[in-house]
Amino acid sequence: MHLSNDFITARAHTNIALIKYWGKKNDDLIIPNNNSLSLTLNEFYTETSVKFDNSLSKDLVLLDDHDISDSNQIINFLDIIRTKANINASAYVKSYNHVPTSAGLASSASGFAALAAAGSKAAGLQLSLTEMSKLARRGSGSATRSIFGGFSEWIKGNTDNDSYGKSIQDPVAMDINMIAIILDKKPKKISSRIGMKRSVETSPYYNAWTKQTEIDLIKAKEAIKSNNFKALGQVAESNSMRMHALTMSADPSFMYFNQDSIEVINTVKNLRENGIDCYFTMDAGPNVKIICQSADIKIIKNKLANKFDENQMVVSKPGRGIEFI
């Protein structure tokens, strides 16, 4: 296998799930219990450079110029690449997150998608987007969708070979934006992995969630196909709240909401009651994403400006898939 002499750099954007993935049937391979659907965003992304170098005695991994070479998750992921490429060389990885880490803004999705793309190419592999998606999944489940731009779906599958992301629509035809309300940049107290496991094992509503999510997915795909913003917003909001109901019904219960999250949710509902067509979604963290159309961005931001600073509100349009730069 031919190793690159130079760093290979890839950029991957975060994605926000409109139909959520919450819970695994296989923790090691990261095989989910349900399909999911997301929108890739242009404002949040990770750029990662990788070089495999036989002169290195061990892997060197820098994230935002901080040494995280002791991260088992990343070293294990690099081992997967080495096995696929049949090489033994250590890696030099430099990664920059243009998104708060571990705050429910999908930094792990963009991070492992970028690492999968740059790492595989640096190791001499020539992977298709589907193969790259399967590889990215081994680092973070949602990374399987960040290989693709626009709307994408993660097919749950049952094995390492049939669980992968695919493009649903790119470029996006719909007028759709997300306003990310960044309420807390600190890493969450309960990680997604721990939260999922607890929800699967202890929430009495988990089986109902997976059945309902199958229905929600069909509705979302129909809304995208027919360019129906309202229908997509409605199903995304209800699916998000159902996911959070699992965390609150787990034992012991936990929640990712904080007081400001509730305030944003109530503001969205108030705006809707007054004729502004907008919806919210939340992942594993307190930050709220508002789904809206271009003409309503200014109105929504003005309404939120009473409570939140301008720099807490980041407007994002649909983003592109994996890029080598």
TrEMBL record:
Its EC number is 4.1.1.33. One of its GO terms (molecular function) is diphosphomevalonate decarboxylase activity. SUPFAM superfamilies: GHMP Kinase, C-terminal domain, Ribosomal protein S5 domain 2-like. It comes from the Bacteria. Residues 180-312 form the Mvd1 C-terminal domain. Keywords: ATP-binding, Lipid biosynthesis, Lipid metabolism, Lyase, Nucleotide-binding. Pfam families: MDD_C (PF18376), MVD-like_N (PF22700). InterPro entries: GHMP_kinase_C_sf (IPR036554), Mev_decarb (IPR005935), Mev_diP_decarb (IPR029765), MVD-like_N (IPR053859), Mvd1_C (IPR041431), Ribosomal_Su5_D2-typ_SF (IPR020568), Ribsml_uS5_D2-typ_fold_subgr (IPR014721). Residues 12-164 form the Diphosphomevalonate decarboxylase-like N-terminal domain. Gene3D superfamilies: 3.30.230.10, GHMP kinase, C-terminal domain. Belongs to the diphosphomevalonate decarboxylase family. This is diphosphomevalonate decarboxylase. It comes from Apilactobacillus xinyiensis.
